[in-house]
Design goal:
CATH superfamily of the largest domain: 4-hydroxy-3-methylbut-2-enyl diphosphate reductase, catalytic domain
Number of domains: 3
Order of helices and strands: EHEHEEHEHEHEHEHHEHEHEHEH
CATH class of the largest domain: Alpha Beta
Distance between the termini: 60 Å
Number of strands: 12
Largest sheet: 5 strands, parallel
Shape: flat
Oligomer: single chain
Number of helices: 12
Strand order of the largest sheet: 10-9-11-1-12
Length: about 325
């Protein structure tokens, strides 16, 4: 008979990789297979060190500046977060061959911003300053064409007048609750604001946050598997805290678990950010199983069947290579 304490573990579903992340990783791996190493990737393809290390082992080289791409014959891949318009222009000037792995849902936000700009609107971007996705979205238009806000208080500082035609777009990985508060502040100040026809916050972010909210009243603690620089993973931890979970921790791997914090719990939920691979979740479960007599159940709040095809240029190159 096991002498280990019992622990009820609730696995949140959906969790982990979203369609945009699967596509971005697939772009790098297919490019490596098609062109051979090296393949350059501008910025982390997704915000997860396990994924980055795996791709490095296969021949990917991660760079922050296009000038670092010393082999001009090798492809340069833009990450899932998207890039400013100046980046492809610079790549063309340098004679680089590029593949754009920007998530289609981020591209949707870029297109919305362009439509608003062409129609002469004042554009508000709801997001976190400095995040690569936000940098890329701001860089779609001339400097000053988009105003970034990150809180309701910042909405109050906007200098747009009542006669201005105002629109907003959002970062795709925000907390739903945070975004809702900021949107409410925008609506109060600009009742006729132009809003996205469909929410900009991506389906995967929404689904993972809803699962955390559902499980929160049922457990004493929650672990979010994901990297510290992953926006959607950080938001999951914050959602858990707001939902009343006494102990909510973001860990990049099982090695980061502080067992002093989890020694006396009887129930735990586990989820993963949209850029965290399932193997990391499995390792967390194994680590708890080594210390507890665990009983695992799954809480499912949505079915995900979203699929994004590879970039056209990569599909065409593969077809030409295979002769189809």
């Amino acid at each position: 008979m096991s002498q280990k304490p019992k622990l009820r573990v609730v696995l949140c579903a959906p969790r982990g990789f979203c369609a945009g992340v699967v596509r971005a990783i697939d772009v790098v791996e297919r490019a490596l297979a098609l062109y051979g190493p090296p393949v350059y990737v501008r910025h982390e393809i997704v915000h997860n060190q396990h994924v980055v290390r795996s791709l490095i082992s296969k021949g990917a080289i991660f760079i922050e500046s296009l000038a670092e791409a010393s082999d001009r014959r090798a492809p340069v891949i833009f990450s899932a977060h998207g890039v400013a318009r100046a980046v492809p222009r610079e790549a063309e000037e340098l004679g680089l061959f590029t593949i754009d792995a920007t998530c289609p849902l981020v591209t949707k936000v870029h297109r919305e911003a362009w439509v608003h700009f062409k129609r002469g609107r004042k554009i508000i971007l709801i997001g976190h300053a400095g995040h690569p996705e936000v940098v890329g979205t701001l860089g779609q238009l001339p400097q000053g064409a988009i105003t970034l806000v990150g809180s309701p208080a910042e909405v109050e500082t906007l200098t747009f007048g009542p006669e201005d035609d105002v629109a907003y777009v959002t970062q795709t990985t925000l907390s739903l609750d945070d975004a809702r508060e900021i949107v409410a502040a925008i609506r109060r100040r600009f009742p006729h604001v132009n809003e996205p026809a469909r929410a900009d916050i991506c389906y995967a972010t929404t689904n993972r946050q809803e699962a955390v909210k559902r499980v929160a009243p049922q457990v004493e603690a929650i672990i979010v598997v994901g990297s510290a620089n992953s926006s959607n993973s950080q938001r999951l931890r914050e959602v858990a805290e707001r939902a009343g979970v006494g102990l909510a921790r973001l860990v990049a791997s099982a090695e980061e678990i502080d067992w002093r914090e989890f020694g006396a719990i009887g129930s735990l939920a586990v989820t993963a950010g949209a850029s965290a691979p399932e193997i990391l979740v499995e390792q967390v479960l194994d680590a708890f199983a080594a210390r507890f007599d665990i009983e695992v159940e799954t809480l499912s709040t949505a079915d995900e069947s979203v699929f994004f095809p590879l970039p056209r240029g990569l599909r065409e190159a593969e077809a030409a290579r295979s002769g189809t």
